[in-house]
Structure of cytochrome-c oxidase:
Amino acid sequence: MRALRLHRTLDAIWRTEPGWRGWLRSVNHSDIGKRFIIAAFTFFAIGGVLAMLIRAQLATPNSAFVGPAVYNQIFTMHGSIMMFLFAIPMFEGLAMYILPKMLGARDLAFPRLSSLGWWCYLFGGTIIVGSMLAGVAPDAGWFLYPPLSGKQWTPGINSDVWLLGITFVEVSAMCAAIEIAVSILKLRAGDMRLDRMPILAWYLLATAGMMIFGFPPLILGSILLEVERAFGWPFYTAALGGDPLLWQHLFWLFGHPEVYIIFLPAAGAVSTILPVMARTRLLGYGAIVAAVLALAFLSFGLWVHHMFTTGIPHMALGFFSAASTLVAIPTAVQIFAWLGTLWNGRPEMKLPMLYLIGFFIVFVLGGLTGVMLAVVPFDTQAHDTAFVTAHLHYVLVGGFVFPMLAAAYYWLPHFTGRGRVMRIGEAAFWLIFVGFNLTFFGMHLTGLLGMPRRIDTYSEEMGWTALNLISSVGGFVQAFGFALFLIDVVLKTRLGQRVRRDPWNADTLEWAMPIPAPSYNFASLARVSSREPRDDVPDLAVRLARGDGLLASAESGRRETLAVDMTTGTPEHVAILPGNSWLPIATAATLGGFFLLMLAGLYPFAPLFLIGTAWLVWRWAWSNGSRADIGAIDAGDGLRLPTSFEAQGTTGWWGSIFALSASATLFASLLFGYAFLWTVAPNWPPPELTQAATIEPVLAILGAALATLAVRVRRATLAAAGQGAILLALAALIALRMPSPSSHAYAATSAAVAAYGIFHAGVAMLMWLFIRARSRAGFHSPARDAEPRIATLWSDHAAGAGAFAAMLLVIPGWLA
Ligand SMILES: [Cu+2]
């Protein structure tokens, strides 16, 4: 009886309201995760249709199926959709859905942020795909190299669609990355030490960390290219002191880690599913964690292997070639750990296992051609040929699609509570596996025979006809396989038999709940004493449902979950999570309005939407918090814990640390660009453009000092004034002292550095005004001081960056 009452009250607190209103307002991680997965699969299908068009075009020589202009849009969109609208969102969806359940929590750390990310993804993806219908889709290749993507060679809005649309979707990726990292570090079952975390959590933590440091270079590069296209600031124009290679560096600084951002979550699924299929435990947990962290770190030092043929120094060639072969080591550690796990266990050929075997074969082949391409002389020959296309598909389809299909079959019962219908999944596997190899194995050979990537047709004499036809036939076989997979999933969802709680006999916490999952996941939260909580306590699910665990009371009416110490997992405080809200969709809509107006070239009006966004963010922040001290509350099991309103080291604090790390990475990428152009561009900076002003930098430094000191004595108004001084000083430097940013890349880069400082000073200023208003409204007390402490982080960063930017703008002038 008590269990049923607990279920009813918890569901009333956590559930999504029925109807479209609830659909728009929901912030629940299960809802948002499922939406991400469904949308990502839809985009995958669209990208797949584009792939079919490519194969139809290349099936025969001298084909006129589509013209070259349309063909350019097709292959560009195929790559962009698969990378940005399928792979990353698919992993985000899986992580959002499964992660809190695996960690024994009730939701993610920032439910409204997940919802914002979802709407940004949906709106951005729709803009990008919609551009195809309008015939103005991006057409400069998925990596959009200037000068081809610049104004001169792409005068239409095609490149703008990519730059603005992808950046909009990237907002969602950054939200997800911060969300995932903080959730793993803070919201876990009681006593879940770091080394007791399910292995997938380690993979996702590494992935989220890589996104936080890997995406900012791309976001920066895209902003700079869009500004160059829109306002003529010549960052990438060689004639005006820029360099198109700067784009390649920024793009691949993101693009190489991106491959691992896609691979690691999939490998995490392999490490989770394989031991269950083999009825044993994962071999070498510690070695795998070390390998994953090493891979995440190494992957940032390899980006130049995409640029071996751009004429970089010999020394760099040697270094990046060696570094590229080095990644084979941590990858091999994982492969051997998986093989050892299979060896130890008694593998059963269930459906997910079949897809895992497909993964092994395809991915290892892709890895081997990767080692070949890491060798510079070979790469010089194979660069930009179909060989590279074959390699990257073996890596990405092998390393992501096959594991994700295994994951789909593994976790599908969790989503639906139903089992399988017929053996359609096996048939789908064979079609996909055979079709894939038919398509891409021959492409290695076509590439070695000299067929370049991205050409729209070829003549009979080249000798590529038979291989291309085989590839095309294989492509269509694969498409049938994916269609069958889709049919299978729909059938299972509709007709499958109801299954018991844990169909695979797995030992992680997501199976310790009824399926499909209740809105609140667990009626009470577990404390764990090992990595296999369900082996330790066989009836754990029943006990949690009965309310024997932590936070079994729902009397407060708030959404509560446990926050723990990051390393030891000791219960630390009770995180209070926000409920359903209009704010995420409204914020995404105003951001979408900004991007659409930029796309339409209505630049003067676009900032209005940013003001709207700022107002909504203000209201959003205002809706959190408490006006009274609550004190410690009874968390069960004899624990009395404070709420997150009165705790230190909250999710908000850690979220800010990660957001600022991402922002600092963006700034560092900009400084890298500055240093890069200084090094490679001739006559940089031109002495006549430099500026030796002293008043403004002094003002900026005084402002920074005022802001930094004022926050130490909690004087919000003075801190805001200090930030205002920085903002004014930087604006004056750019507007009054420096030449027009469109005159030279030096002026443009300096203006971008100043813009970074201005933006952060502006944000910090608003934060202090917010803090002042909140203090007066009674949201702060000696116990409830999380907000001013978070604002201090942002303020200090803005002060440092602002003073630095002001100095950077005048030092070349002082030296001249
Ligand atoms: Cu790479």
